[in-house]
Structure formats: structure tokens, C-alpha cells
Write a structure and sequence with these properties.
Elements (H helix, E strand, L loop, with lengths): L7 H5 L3 E5 L4 E6 L2 H15 L4 E3 L13 H4 L3
Antiparallel strand pairs: 1-2, 1-3
Bound molecules: zinc ion.
The site of zinc ion has 6 residues, from α2.
Length: about 70
């Protein structure tokens, strides 16, 4: 039983997380960008923090920024 035996394709699957620079926290990982964006939007609305989605390299996904003022009415 070694780590190498874990499904290798999973290591390369993209993962997305909502990240809040204000809290300096990232949410749970999602394999779907849409779910991470939803989490980011939820955090932005709840905490009034600008939040965005990062990929598995902690790089911000272009266009993923969720601003509190734009999600408040959703
Ligand atoms: Zn926050």
C-alpha cells in the first residue's frame, strides 16, 4: 500500500477552491469550477468580502472574482 497506487489520474485533475484574501482562507476543494464559484459567491455575500476562485496551483482563475456588491441581490 503506497501512495503511488492511488488513482494517478486524480493527481492531475484540476481542483478549484474559493479563496478569500481578506480571511486568508481557502474553502474546500471542488473538481467543478462552478461549485467553487458558488462557494466564493456565498462567502462574498455572507461576509461581504471580495472572493475569488483559485486552481490547484493557487492561481486565481481569470474572471472568477466575486464582489459583495454584485452578489448581494442574488
Ligand atoms: Zn472572507
Amino acid at each position: 500500500m503506497t501512495a503511488e497506487n492511488e488513482a494517478p489520474e486524480r493527481r492531475w485533475a484540476p481542483t478549484y477552491r474559493a479563496h478569500c484574501p481578506t480571511c486568508r482562507k481557502s474553502g474546500r476543494k471542488f473538481s467543478s469550477y462552478g461549485n467553487a464559484e458558488e462557494a466564493a459567491r456565498g462567502h462574498a455575500g455572507k461576509h461581504v468580502h471580495t472572493t475569488y476562485v483559485v486552481d490547484q496551483y493557487d492561481i486565481r482563475v481569470v474572471g472568477s472574482v466575486q464582489r459583495p456588491d454584485s452578489v448581494a441581490e442574488a
